[in-house]
Amino acid sequence: MVIGIFGENCSGKSTLAEAIREAVGGTVISGKDYLRMAKSADEAEKRFRAMLTEAVHGESIIYVTSETQQLALLPEGAVRILVQADLDAIKARFRARMHGVLPAPVEKMLERKHGMFDREPCDFRFDGVSGDAAALCEQLAKRCDIPQGLDNEEK
Q: Strands (DSSP E) along the chain, which ranges?
């Protein structure tokens, strides 16, 4: 199974990915980490696409991205989860990452990008501030016929 988790910076994507990994298993790959798969970007992307296509009906891969152009990497059959958060929450989380300081240019960038994923097709929308990750994991497990409550070695 391939699960694509996408949304704006600091919306809660990585937290959700970890909850899904713990609940249903799988490998989490973030952003452009796939570029480490080969010396050239083109070859790495080719290998990553093949890995994702194979994983649609095999081992689970959870792909996390905050860039719209990377959504094109998701193969047909991938489960797409949009993680959303209100702009104030995103700013507060980003400020915390930057040790309490949110420079004006960064704040403007966050404002400009807010809502950039809202029109992207998705199977699930998840509130990255108050969403119930356990409930979403349960829905994923049912939808994809994955038994829950197993140790990672059993998945």
A: 2-7, 27-30, 61-65, 79-84, 124-127
